Amino acid sequence: MSVTAAYGFTAAGVAAGLKSPAEDGTAKRDVALVVNTGPLKHAAAVLTTNRVSAAPVLWSRQVISDGRADAVVLNSGGANACTGAPGFADTHTTAEQVAEKLSSAGQDVSATDVLVCSTGLIGVRLDMPALLSGVESAVNTLGEDDDAGAAASEAILTTDTVTKTATASGSGFTIGGMAKGAGMLAPGMATMLSVITTDAVISAEALDAALREAVRVSFNRADSDGCMSTNDTVIAMASGAHPDADPAGVNLTEFQTALAEVCQTLAAALIADAEGAHHEIAIRTINAATEDEAETAGRAVARSNLFKTAIFGRDPNWGRILSAVGTTDVAFDPMTIDVAVNGVWICRAGGIGEDRSLVDLSDRLVEVVIDLKAGEAEATILTNDLTHDYVHENSAYSS
Amino acid sequence: MSVTAAYGFTAAGVAAGLKSPAEDGTAKRDVALVVNTGPLKHAAAVLTTNRVSAAPVLWSRQVISDGRADAVVLNSGGANACTGAPGFADTHTTAEQVAEKLSSAGQDVSATDVLVCSTGLIGVRLDMPALLSGVESAVNTLGEDDDAGAAASEAILTTDTVTKTATASGSGFTIGGMAKGAGMLAPGMATMLSVITTDAVISAEALDAALREAVRVSFNRADSDGCMSTNDTVIAMASGAHPDADPAGVNLTEFQTALAEVCQTLAAALIADAEGAHHEIAIRTINAATEDEAETAGRAVARSNLFKTAIFGRDPNWGRILSAVGTTDVAFDPMTIDVAVNGVWICRAGGIGEDRSLVDLSDRLVEVVIDLKAGEAEATILTNDLTHDYVHENSAYSS
């Protein structure tokens, strides 16, 4: 199940030769296409806030501005970032190829309604003949079954070891999504991409609002190594094709909850597949003055290399947690803060708490709880440990 | 030459048993004392801005508030951070021991004029009998020669491999300084400590202003791994004892330049001795709108684990540099920015520049130049690469 779980979508994933073949010589899928067959063509996107934005991000920002998208084409094997005007022209050409081939196949699509995503190395041009040929193959193999969705979710992977998909459903709607990357970033800077489809009847404005809220509490709280990509993109497309859909529109509260659940499942899957990581760490900050402050405190800890290496070494080093929180301006008193690691409150009132030898860090999953005692808000940041494999992965391969 | 280079200071460094002995069984120096014998007792200090401040930082903040300090006592073998009220009492007791023993030796000193610094593990109490006995030994071995200064600079080391000292002089003044730590942080979180002495005739207010400016352009631009300590302290003390001192006061411009030079030499020495580092990296941001923005851009790059692992892998990965700058809000145009690594402009106008294979990263020293083309200000941030040795150092030892 993936982007084809919802009614009104077709998908494909093909091998175009943008990625190197597998060790056994098999070509890897590297071009994905997701098409909204309607009746609605509503869409929303959340794009990287990195000011060095890749060409496909610049393009997609324009496409999405009217709340409509008919299709999204995604390629792995190259990020098309820092490639200047020629790179932007490549993205434009790709969208035109999608529109032309879909139109030839009977679906009238304008290039300006085609979103584009790319992932791979920064600063290299894409192999355009290969990509354009891949787009044609993708159009020719579009399907609406599980296999088609699975092929698309595979074609967007870079150094990911598994595909990441999620679905949810409610009264008169289904949501299906796929994602790739993140976690420990791949050589040359990998990208977090996600495409989510739904057959709900929902306006572009409501879809945009729901997507932003869902991303805020999911992907934006997954912080594997603090490095923001030039290509990060999350796209949601609504077809309104569910047979039981309420023509007046989906229940927005129910839809919001289901969409956040799909995004959180995908975000957790990214962290779980982070390259080089030995631990997935959930940093839950409780009793914060505001949700933003809870997020700020957790993110400071998630970005501390000393904390991350300590977890790799199975060392419940609460001093490194406190010193990271201490660099922020969130409301807390250093003399009352408590910290637990995997259920053991090893820091009490800013000092030595329960016996640290009681903490078991042998599992992959680690939960840190930081009690700020400053309010009632909370937030959880997901991150990874900093390991030899991370250093190896990001240094040993030239990009 | 060290803190005893300037007239009017005595120093000592003794082994009190706070640190484990060397492999050959030799006791390591771990208590240092620097005494200002006057006639002036002016002092200034820059303390960590981490809100989780160690007990000695809380104490020294009070001591320095009146611009006077007679002595500073420093111990390695324990940071006395996150130790609550008992830890603060330990610091108080240490200052009282210094005052009492100095007074017994004929120098009338109040405990409230004794600065205290500690460095080592967070969250453990100090061995007070050993420390107090060490203070007594230090008072008994105070000297004003080079050996005494060298002993003090050795006693503050933790996992440093060499002592760090610097001197400068000008019309009617000498400046001497010592420092420890920083760079890749040691197990349990090391501390950056520095004590600088001068025989200049200078008011406490002018000394404070000069020290803050010197720290701003030196220690505050050394960012080895982005982790701020709970104990960071830089202290300056002026005795006014130089035989050629102008009683009306030192030339402040000349003094400021010399003090900044001493601080920059010490900061560079910290980065050069950073544990686990294979490269020292100077990130020079030029043509920024303001000096602050130059610093912000450089620091964003210095804190990118992807950039730091790339340099370890001798990969001049300019995409990772651009994506780090892109996360900031400093003035620059992604379509005009240039980046050079070791003199080769591999990124021109935000895209591919000269051949990256021309970049030689075999030397320990690396210079990155980022040309923002937004103004005329510049700043240099010093940092290190992220290596297997860093991960090992900070994960393999439980703290």
TrEMBL record, chains A, B:
Cellular location(s): Cytoplasm
Catalytic activity: L-glutamate + acetyl-CoA = N-acetyl-L-glutamate + CoA + H(+); N(2)-acetyl-L-ornithine + L-glutamate = N-acetyl-L-glutamate + L-ornithine
Catalytic residues identified in the record: T191 (nucleophile)
Site entry (Involved in the stabilization of negative charge on the oxyanion by the formation of the oxyanion hole), positions: T119, G120
GO molecular function: L-glutamate N-acetyltransferase activity, acting on acetyl-L-ornithine as donor
Protein function: Catalyzes two activities which are involved in the cyclic version of arginine biosynthesis: the synthesis of N-acetylglutamate from glutamate and acetyl-CoA as the acetyl donor, and of ornithine by transacetylation between N(2)-acetylornithine and glutamate.
HAMAP family: ArgJ
Name assigned to this protein: Arginine biosynthesis bifunctional protein ArgJ
Encoding gene per record: argJ
